[in-house]
Amino acid sequence: MKLARKITIALTLLAIAVMTVLETLEVRRELERSAIDMQHDHRLLGHTLAGSIARAWQEEGEAEALTLLDQANRFQAQVYLRWVWLDGAQGHSAPALPASLLRTLRGGQDGSMVDDTSAGAGVLRSYTPVFINTHLGAIEISESLSEEHQHVRNTVQNAAIATCAIAVAFLLAAMAMGRRLVGRPVNQLVELAHRIGEGRLEERVHLRQNDELQTLATAMNRMAELLLTAREKIALETAAHLATLEHLRHADRLTTVGKLASGVAHEMGTPLNVVLGRSKMISSGEVVGDEVTECAQIISQQALHMTRIIRQLLDFARRRAPRRAPENIAQLVTHTLTLLRPLATKRGATLVSEVPDSLILEVDSGQLQQVLTNLVMNGIHAMKRPGTLRVRAGPTRAAPPTETGGQETEWIRLDVEDEGEGIRPEDLPHIFDPFFTTKDVGEGTGLGLSVSHGLVQDHGGWIAVRSEPGRGSCFSVYLPPGGP
Amino acid sequence: MKHSHTRAQETPATLPQADAPRLLLAEDDSEMRCMLSRALRRSGFHVTELRDGRETVSLLSHCATQTPEQMPHLLISDVRMPGCTGLEVLAHLRRSHSCLPVILITSFGDEETHEEARRLGAAQVIDKPFDLDELCAAAWTLVPAS
């Protein structure tokens, strides 16, 4: 039920209650006034007849005196008069009157009572005491109250009809006014709130009244204006933010492209120069005989070197998603170390696997082997004098690096630990950057660690490194125990 | 892929004359060093090959104690070398108040490298890959006419 209707009904009920109370009080007052008037009339009639009856009783006897009462009864029908003895004289029994009334009458004063025992609406009986010789009698005047009751009923009925008519009129007027002054403006305000909620902030509401709802409408219009201004400001700021982001992305792309370009230029410059020089030596006839063959071999070697750089660069650029399958890590490590053992032996390095046979992980075997190969080769290159390179694996608890984020949990860690020269502290932050290398020319392209880092990240893990210059380095590959 | 740095000295295309200008060549890539050395000798220089930055700095320090007749006339150095970069060699030279002309060769030819080389007073910075005749011509322009 709407608020305006509730208020209207509540006010109507209140008005009906007030009018009912007022009407009831008015009817009561009227009844009291009517009773007083009747008693007064009875008293006047009683006193008028009392003297005549007393005189007639003494001068002409009882029969004449009572004849006066009969005559009086004949002349008016509203009241009925009769003689009663109050002290039981002449063998007549006294009427059953309340003791208080009897005392009043015996004291010579008039009295009245309402007799409810008779049929109908009751009878008002008034008594005027008359002393006949020494006996106390009284003129009893009886008047039916049915007319009074009928009047009361009519009055109540009329009042009820008037109250209902007023209530209905009030209700209709209040509802019409409520709809016009409250319902319609509130609907307009609700509609405005909905439109604002839908984002139509240019909408406004205009009320033709000067009350609290108008104040609310003005406040809502102002709110919509402020929201519109704020939205426009946010849109501008967002556009500026996006433009800045795009600018940063562009700058970042340029930086990456520049980095890659300089890396490629750096790696390719020297072999290209050798190819250029050697080919020119051949074409100019500067070299003859075996020297031509030697130049051609050098050109071939340099071309192969450049091919390797380009292949690694393409591997770096065209990284595919890992195709995971359960792999025995011990077998994978053994296989990798077997392939690299000739190179290690040439440099006096011993390769040792300490990976438990039972370790099975969901990995892309090709990619993990590539990672291991890069790390082991880096270790071999770092060992300028004979030493041992160990590959270990096992479960551990660790928290991912801060840039990835995450809780400390269970991981599988693969350690590749060498006894090489170690990494300088100032180089550590750059070791995963593309084309960063500390190796001699031709030994590395600077892409191996960068590629490995990306492959391990694709497996849901990361690579950590600790190094002590002069003592060696340990690269730790963290992988999820059951695959990501 | 690496060759002995003495191979170029063993197989010179032409032998330089006794009064040929003395040139120091610092390059860590043996193939590149061998080829450059050969071209420069052929062009008429007396070339001393150096394998990295440290060796170069060591030799230059030694040169400071020699007579003017034994002093080199020119240094050609790669920028990126293990131990000590060409720029660091150049900075070392300038600290020791040497006005030896220096040609830097680099394949990492970004603007910062060129700027730093100019600031340290490099006579020329040549980006790889370059033509060997071009390098020889540039070297000759820096040698005193006498």
UniProtKB/TrEMBL annotation, chain A:
Gene3D superfamilies named in the record: 1.10.287.130, 6.10.340.10, Histidine kinase-like ATPase, C-terminal domain (3.30.565.10)
This protein's UniProt keywords: Kinase, Membrane, Phosphoprotein, Transferase, Transmembrane, Transmembrane helix
Entries under InterPro entries matching the protein: HAMP_dom, HATPase_C_sf, HATPase_dom, His_kinase_dom, HisK_dim/P_dom, HisK_dim/P_sf, Sig_transdc_His_kin-like_C
Pfam families, A to Z: HAMP, HATPase_c, HisKA
Top-rank taxon: Bacteria
Principal localisation: membrane
Transmembrane segments: 159-178
Occurrences of domain HAMP (ranges): 180-232
A GO-annotated cellular component: membrane
GO molecular function term, any single one: phosphorelay sensor kinase activity
Location relative to the cell: Membrane
EC number of this enzyme: 2.7.13.3
The protein's name in its UniProt record: histidine kinase
Record lineage: Bacteria, Pseudomonadati, Myxococcota, Myxococcia, Myxococcales
Automatic annotation (TrEMBL), chain B:
Keywords: Phosphoprotein
Residue numbers spanned by region Disordered: 1-21
Biological process (GO), any one: phosphorelay signal transduction system
SUPFAM superfamilies hit by this protein: CheY-like
Pfam families per record: Response_reg
Residue numbers of 4-aspartylphosphate PTMs: 78
Domain Response regulatory: 22-143
SMART domains: REC
PANTHER family with a match to the protein in the record: RESPONSE REGULATORY DOMAIN-CONTAINING PROTEIN, STRESS RESPONSE REGULATOR PROTEIN 1
Protein name according to UniProt: Two-component system, regulatory protein
